[in-house]
Specification:
By secondary structure, this protein is mainly beta. It is built from no helices and 14 strands. Strands 3-4-5-6-7-8-9 form a seven-stranded mixed β-sheet, with no helix packed on it. Strands 10-11-12-13-14 form a five-stranded antiparallel β-sheet, with no helix packed on it. It has a two-stranded parallel sheet with strand order 1-2. The model has no long low-confidence stretch (mean pLDDT 79).
Length: 174
Amino acid sequence: SGSGEVGIGTTVPAKGTKLDLTQASFAANAALRINNPSHNEHWDLAISNNSGTLLELSNYSSGTTMVWNNGGNVGIGESSPSGKVHIVNGSGITLPTIEASNRNMLILEGDQSENYLVIASPNDSWAGITFADPDFKSSGNIMYNHTDDLMRFTTDAVERMRINSTGGLTSTQT
């Protein structure tokens, strides 16, 4: 068009877009393909025909690798995410029925004999999980100190228990 928009599959590109890819029929996925024919590889970004799936990212060798569904959930290695972010390593496992609610923020699923959530940080720092609420950014913690090799547990922003590098347990409860 005269205003800088380019339309493929349409003679009237959407106003304000630089590139409008429009598919005349929904018989197949509409896709933007990034292709490397010399290596027989490609990536597709597609509006999906699959019920509930809004957008898919897939590649030539492994198929669909990421989906965004109509509910705003993202699946990485998972075509039907059960949480806001649902990541599957391998072919996954059969999960118990997970309630359909906004409580499932992050689901990590693996089919290996050992599966870990790794929090990595420098040797002279802390790493951990913090529980926050609208009134306080650090109401509770599970924290590891790499310098002293200790694990600290806090509730109500107060350290309640500590495990030191020799396995000794210190508690502030009386």
